[in-house]
Design brief:
By secondary structure, the protein is an alpha/beta fold. The chain contains 8 helices and 5 strands. The longest helix is centred in the last third of the chain and has 17 residues. The structure holds shikimate-3-phosphate. Shikimate-3-phosphate binds next to loops.
Length: 183
């Protein structure tokens, strides 16, 4: 892996949104590594703040409490600049979160079909919303509900059948084209 250093001077955050399994964390880590930008994962920040895993937060405190923690860590992360920020799939549910993320970042929606998302998440039990009998149906429902929210991103990037390298190249090119365009 080569550090191109190409967008090291980029002050805006790169924000990754999309449904569970869309590759936000894997891609975010990769982008941070090749650019030298700091990596933040809002799910990790929530776990740190709560002192317990997401499954326990949902089971013991409920989803509304999880969403409050999520809004807090997003507000804090959006204060920073020059970071790659991977968000949880439900981050877009609150308009305030979208506004905060957009205030300091270029927001990318990583798009994939429910079937592909299922293939990428089926061996991982850390997502309470998918620990159900029919996770594909849940993914389809969430996709239908949230697609209009995800599509408020600055850019939509289709990740279906694409490698991490291909998607990150596309994101970095979009960032560079934006930083060149007049304000
Ligand atoms: C959620 C997505 C998860 C995590 C939580 C809820 C959602 O994050 O925040 O389980 O509502 O879609 P990932 O998208 O990183 O899996």
């Amino acid at each position: 892996m080569q550090n191109t250093g190409k967008i090291k001077t980029m002050t805006k955050n790169i924000v990754l949104t999309g449904l569970m399994g869309s590759g936000k964390t894997t891609l975010g880590k990769y982008l941070a590594e090749i650019t030298g930008m700091e990596f933040l994962d809002t799910d990790d920040l929530i776990v740190k703040k709560a002192g317990k895993p997401i499954t326990e937060i949902f089971a013991e405190d409920g989803e509304p409490h999880f969403r409050d923690l999520e809004s807090q860590v997003i507000a804090e992360a959006a204060q920073k600049t020059g970071c790659v920020i991977s968000t949880g799939g439900g981050a877009v549910k609150r308009q305030k979160n979208i506004d905060n993320l957009k205030s300091t970042g270029m927001v990318f929606y990583l798009q994939a079909s429910a079937e592909e998302l299922y293939e990428r998440t089926k061996h991982d039990s850390s997502r309470p919303l998918l620990n159900v009998d029919d996770p594909v149906a849940v993914l389809k429902k969430l996709l239908a509900e949230r697609a209009p929210l995800y599509e408020t991103a600055h850019f939509t990037v289709n990740t279906e059948k694409k490698s991490i390298e291909e998607v990150s190249k596309q994101i970095l090119e979009l960032c560079q084209s934006q930083s060149r365009s007049p304000a």
